[in-house]
Amino acid sequence: MKAYNIAVVGASGMVGGELLGLLESRRFPVGEFYAFNSGREPAAVEFRGKKYACAAPTFRALKKADIAFFVSTDEVSGRFARRLAAAGTWCIDDSSRFRLSPGVPLVIPEVNGEEVGPGKKLIAGPNCTLTGAAVALAAIHRKFRVAELRIATYQAVSGAGKAAMKQLEEELRAYLGKGAASSRNGSFPRPIAFNLFPQVGGFDAEGNSVEENKVEGELKKIWGDTRIKISATAVRVPVLRGHSLAVWFKTARPCSLDSVRKELGRTPGLKFSEKPENYPTPLENGQRTEAVYAGRLRRAKTAANEFQLWIVSDNLYKGAALNSVQIAERIIEL
Ligand SMILES: NC(=O)c1ccc[n+]([C@@H]2O[C@H](COP(=O)([O-])OP(=O)(O)OC[C@H]3O[C@@H](n4cnc5c(N)ncnc54)[C@H](OP(=O)(O)O)[C@@H]3O)[C@@H](O)[C@H]2O)c1
């Protein structure tokens, strides 16, 4: 079997760490392996039992890879990915830099994997928040067309990276130790221990947050449908890992609760529980899990053809690292 030289830019980060583990556990055919970080502090990562020192990326070093995973920052992806893809290296970008760029496929393999093709070497992976909804409702959208979608998110701190994880842990310790929350907010606009806040990213002129706009724009692109009306409220909660979503979706074509249930039961990448008490939670279903989980399907009381669903997925796996590795698996099948 052919082996592929792999670069991971952001190997020392949250997503980078999961990506390395998945390349190993899914036996991705890796030849040479190159690890990159910011270069600000010496760091090493372990891959297949060997230690690799991380270095700041350069175009020349990245060019040695057949496939480069970008799991660092928008700025780094912007600096390298397009040029590198033009020079022949497949670039799988988890940052938001190119997600809405025309000509760059935004891919969840179970939903629109056919967009991975030879001509397009720069491929983006979506924001971890909308992945759950994009996977869970894909088949329903195809069959009954989702015309309106309302989403409330309950987002784990790991979605904001390793510093944010550490901050929640530190705040919890300070709170339990001293009886007062830490005054250092760091990664977040407000204290996160024993708290939550309706802000993920900055706000636009209309008062929508960056995250809420990403949910709308990226979901429309992945489903290839700009007609859907999408409204979201993104909330950060003191959960370490696993994003949850409460969704209300209204279909354009009439459909019964039973037909929605049947469609959810056969949606690729989704594990759907019919019994209301078997709903998923981030602790039980969002930690190193590959599938998206859904439950509590019911008719909404607000309109005909409107339904409610609860969705949980692992932001670091299906929301980032796993999705990227699945894209790479598609690439080597081409
Ligand atoms: N966390 C999630 O759930 C999630 C989901 C989907 C997409 N993403 C995206 O994935 C990317 C990584 O997120 P993360 O949560 O893993 O963040 P993180 O834990 O903060 O890790 C960031 C990584 O990027 C590296 N880095 C920072 N500046 C760099 C530079 N100038 N040059 C090279 N490397 C640099 C860091 O290196 P140092 O260790 O040296 O600082 C670290 O390895 C982001 O673009 C994020 O938007 C994250």
Strand element count: 13
Question: What string, H for helix and E for strand, traces the elements in order?
Answer: EHEEEHEHEHEHHEHHEEHEHEEH
Amount of helix: 25-40%
Gyration radius over CA: 20 Å
Give the uncertain stretches in residue-range form: none
CATH class of the largest domain, anyone? Alpha Beta
Superfamily (CATH H level) name of the largest domain: Dihydrodipicolinate Reductase, domain 2
Count of discrete alpha- or pi-helical segments spanning 4 or more residues: 11
What's the number of domains? 2
At a glance:
Helix content is 33%, strand content 22%. It contains 11 helices and 13 strands.
Describe the overall structure.
By secondary structure, the protein is of the alpha/beta class. The protein has 2 domains: 4-126 and 320-333, 3-Layer(aba) Sandwich (Rossmann fold); 131-315, Dihydrodipicolinate Reductase, domain 2. Helix content is 33%, strand content 22%. The protein is built from 11 helices and 13 strands. A 6-stranded mixed sheet has the order 9-8-10-13-12-11. Strand 11 (270-272), helix 10 (282-285) and strand 12 (292-299) form a beta-alpha-beta unit. Helix 1 (14-25) packs across helix 11 and helix 5 (128-136) runs parallel beside helix 8. The structure holds NADP nicotinamide-adenine-dinucleotide phosphate. NADP nicotinamide-adenine-dinucleotide phosphate (NAP) is lined by residues 9-16, 36-38, 40, 43, 56-57, 71-73, 76, 94-95, 128, 158-159, 161-163, 315-316, 319-320.
